[in-house]
Write a structure and sequence with these properties.
heterodimer, A: about 325 residues, 11 helices, about 0% strand, globular, B: about 500 residues, alpha+beta, about 15% strand
Chain lengths: ~325, ~500
């Protein structure tokens, strides 16, 4: 690899990192706008997410007297962990510089660490809502995380690698190899994505009812720049999961490792379109279903686990049959 | 201890006043016996209030109504709630406001008095009822909430997600209306009463007007009576529609909420165009109404009724087609028929648990005495039942409105006040929440000596505590919204 190649590689990877951050508020804006339109409301401008973040960054951050260092440092760490995770998922091109690190197991670990920090921060101040939110979040996580691992392993068995770029390349190469195990994984991953992003039916991101909140209850005590970082992290997480679904189940249009700047630009365009399309679908989904009772959530997320398990079982069986 | 006395035996031979209430003075023994009668289910407690040196109790049973008065002895009287728990908050409130001491009151804590009244400050801490057990924790919610709603404090004791006990603390919107009303003239009184709970302003104004008219023998023109009912039914429809939407919103079904909000706005706009005020505030006054309905207005109301019917049918269709929504509402927040009977809970809270009481039907007042409508009840007592009772009431109200509009004949809408006289009057009006009781006493100068308004919420708030028990914490907003009790009407 020449020096010039290296510079291009670094730039491409850097572009990906900043692009996920840049587009995240827009993706959330699309979800909100679609929901508002389906309710015959005008809705907030698409760029409201950026304005919210800018506003929060300017505002003073009020911290409870009982807050420890954990409460203050958690937002930065959560944001950093989520950003790295989001940047690892191949978006517009495979074979980028960090792709060797874009291991699905690493991804799950990064998100798990961010979640643990958020749950701890939620309990740190000692308000009852933070505790409720953290306890519910962990209840969901205990089911969502294993489901996620099973999905990941199913794909790894199919593609023969746990590297996301490798999995994507595999699916680009064999787009018509439709398998039952992959269909099951898709359903399971969508459920996990809904649960992880605190969307309906697991959580309602726009509710004002303290007692029903999960994600919002944990961050109730945050304000100002702390809140901005946590909000940005949650926007990034949405982009991450949408990217992941795109990368694994609709990878067509992704630029190969050898593509030049032109190929990357095209890949970027296609990825953006797919991402915003996914966000619009999420908006449509959210207005067509009620939120679940908290006690039903284990059943719902449990479905993801069962599907993930079946998928991996089938993957093993078919593999055995082929060999 | 004397045996429980039944209201029916007591008033069998007596004639009721023009307002339908038999009035009698009783001694302490009979007072206590009547309180025991409430507990034994012989009759229902409808209201309890202090009036000068007397305690008054409105009772309802077997199609008869009475107001019994007991002279207090040095500001003390035998407690009703010692025998009949639904009276606890009424007695605590009256003690806070007027200093009357109920002897034997089971719960001596203050109620409306939070120790912040000028010249009456008290730093004593309010002790919530204790709950003890392994793994229990408390969740304090309010009085300031994340949404734009009225203030109230809810103290949950929970085991994980399951609510073991809910205790309400109310009184944050105490405005001192009873003291404002004392000594006011009738016109001012009507304005104040119409603002006790703004969402039921028509019902309050109507109840006050009827009580004053009964006290003074004031005749009301027939057209005004029909117009009052039209306003009252429009108010009911507006709240039923918007509350159905709000309940669905708490289950995060945003589309129904949006549709209901639009429909409510439609109703408010028509009311504003027809009567000059979107909530029809101050439209009903003693002697008649202040706003007439033009023939153009009749057309507008009929148009609104058609749109309301369309919305109702569509909401019902969507509601029935969403199992995820019914999963939230069915079997959530059950109130038992026994509790509803004990507390004599009115409105949809009572009717959803099998209590077939509606002031328009049980003690019909003009024009409902000549208006046929069905009184629908359910027995499940859950959020779904309360919601469906209201959906059914929408149908009845729509039908009633059509017939009321048909009957509207030209004529006067307001009559002049008769020569001022001393008098007492009471009225029971069906507000959208349930039966609303207003009692009025007018003194020699034509001023209001004492006005007491008892919102339906007084007997519904305690049932909310019972409904939530055993449910999960996250379902409380849904239960609460299905009751939608008034804070302002309760805090006085």
């Amino acid at each position: 690899m020449t020096m010039g190649d290296l510079v291009v590689q670094v730039l491409a990877q850097g572009a990906q990192m900043f692009f996920v951050l840049l587009i995240a508020p827009l993706a959330v804006g699309v979800v909100r706008r679609v929901k508002a339109r389906l309710m015959r409301r005008q809705g907030a401008p698409l760029l409201q997410g950026y304005r919210d973040l800018a506003k929060l960054l300017r505002k003073e951050s009020v911290v409870a007297e009982s807050a420890s260092w954990l409460f203050r440092s958690a937002p930065v760490l959560i944001f950093a962990l989520t950003w790295v995770a989001a940047a690892l998922v191949p978006s517009f091109a495979s074979g980028l510089m960090f792709n060797w690190a874009a291991d699905v197991v690493a991804l799950v670990a990064l998100l798990g660490a961010a979640r643990a920090l958020l749950a701890l921060a939620g309990m740190d101040v000692g308000t009852s809502f933070g505790g409720i939110g953290s306890s519910r979040e962990m209840m969901i996580a205990t089911l969502a995380e294993p489901a996620m691992m099973l999905i990941v392993l199913t794909l790894a068995i199919a593609a023969g690698t746990t590297r996301l770029a490798g999995v994507a390349d595999f699916f680009i190469a064999e787009p018509f190899a439709v398998r039952v195990s992959l269909a099951l994984s898709l359903v399971a991953l969508i459920i996990v994505a809904l649960a992880e992003n605190a969307r309906i039916p697991v959580d309602n991101p726009v509710t004002h009812l303290e007692l029903t909140m999960v994600h919002e209850a944990m961050i109730l005590e945050y304000s100002g720049r702390h809140l901005a970082l946590i909000e940005a992290a949650s926007y990034l997480k949405l982009v991450l999961y949408l990217s992941l679904l795109i990368c694994l189940f609709a990878p067509f249009g992704m630029a190969p490792a050898t593509a030049g700047v032109g190929g990357w630009a095209l890949g970027l365009l296609i990825w953006t379109a797919k991402l915003l399309g996914g966000a619009a679908l999420l908006g449509l989904w959210e207005v067509s279903i009620a939120k679940m009772r908290v006690f039903r959530l284990p059943d719902f997320v449990g479905i993801a686990f069962v599907f993930g398990f079946l998928a991996i079982l089938l993957a093993f069986l078919t593999r055995g049959a082929v060999e | 201890m004397s045996a429980p006395a039944a209201l029916a035996d007591l008033v069998a031979e007596r004639e009721a006043g023009p307002d339908g209430y038999v009035r009698l003075d009783v001694e302490a023994d009979l007072w206590t016996a009547l309180a025991q009668g409430c507990a034994a289910g012989l009759h229902d407690l409808s209201a309890l209030w202090a009036d000068g040196d007397r305690m008054r109790m409105a009772l309802v049973g077997d199609g008869r109504r009475a107001i019994v008065s007991l002279k207090t002895a040095a500001g003390a009287y035998p407690s009703v709630s010692a025998h009949h728990p639904p009276a606890i908050r009424l007695e605590r409130a009256m003690r806070d406001l007027y200093g009357v001491q109920p002897l034997g009151l089971p719960d001596p804590r203050p109620w409306l008095d939070h120790g912040r009244w000028p010249g009456h400050e008290n730093e004593a801490r309010y002790e919530f009822l204790p709950s003890e057990g392994e793994g229990l924790h408390q969740i304090a919610v309010g009085p300031v909430h994340a949404g734009i709603i009225e203030p109230g404090h809810f103290r949950f004791t929970a085991n994980g997600e399951t609510v073991v006990r809910l205790e309400e603390r109310l009184g944050y919107v105490h405005k001192g209306v009873e003291h404002l009303l004392a000594g006011a003239d009738i016109a001012r009184g009507a304005r104040i009463v119409g603002r006790i709970s703004g969402d039921s302003t028509v019902a309050y104004a109507w109840a006050f007007a009827r009580a004053v008219e009964a006290a003074l023998g004031w005749a009301v023109p027939p057209r005004a009576i029909l117009l009052r009912a039209i306003m009252a039914e429009l108010e009911r429809l507006s709240h039923h529609i918007s509350d159905v939407g709000a309940i669905c919103n708490d289950a995060s079904v945003l589309t129904i909420h949006a549709r209901c909000a639009l429909q409510r706005e439609d109703g408010l706009a028509v009311a504003g165009a027809c009567f000059g005020h979107r909530l029809m505030m101050d439209c009903i006054v003693p002697g008649g109404v202040t706003a007439d309905l033009s023939s153009d207005g009749i057309g507008q109301v009929r148009g609104l009724l058609a749109r309301l019917e369309e919305t109702r049918a569509e909401i019902l269709r969507v509601y029935d087609s969403l199992p995820s929504l019914q999963d939230r509402t069915v079997t959530t927040g059950i109130v038992t028929p026994e509790l509803v009977r004990q507390y004599a809970a009115g409105g949809f809270v009572g009717r959803a648990s099998g209590r077939a009481f509606d002031a328009r039907k049980s003690f019909p007042y003009a024009p409902y005495d000549r208006l046929d409508f069905a009184l629908k009840t359910r027995t499940a007592g859950d959020v779904d039942a309360r919601l469906m009772v209201r959906m059914e009431e929408i149908v009845e109200s729509l039908g009633m409105l059509h017939r009321l509009l048909d009957r509207l004949a030209p004529g006067e809408i307001r009559s002049a006040a008769p020569a001022m006289a001393v008098g007492e009057g009471a009225a029971l009006v069906e507000a959208f929440r349930g039966d609303l009781f207003v009692s009025v006493r007018i003194d020699e100068g034509g001023k209001l000596a004492r006005v007491h308004a008892r919102d339906a919420s007084w007997f519904q708030w305690p049932l909310l505590e019972a409904a939530v028990e055993g449910n999960i914490v996250a379902d409380f907003p849904l239960c609460n919204k299905s009751f939608n009790c008034s804070y302002s009407g309760h805090d006085l």
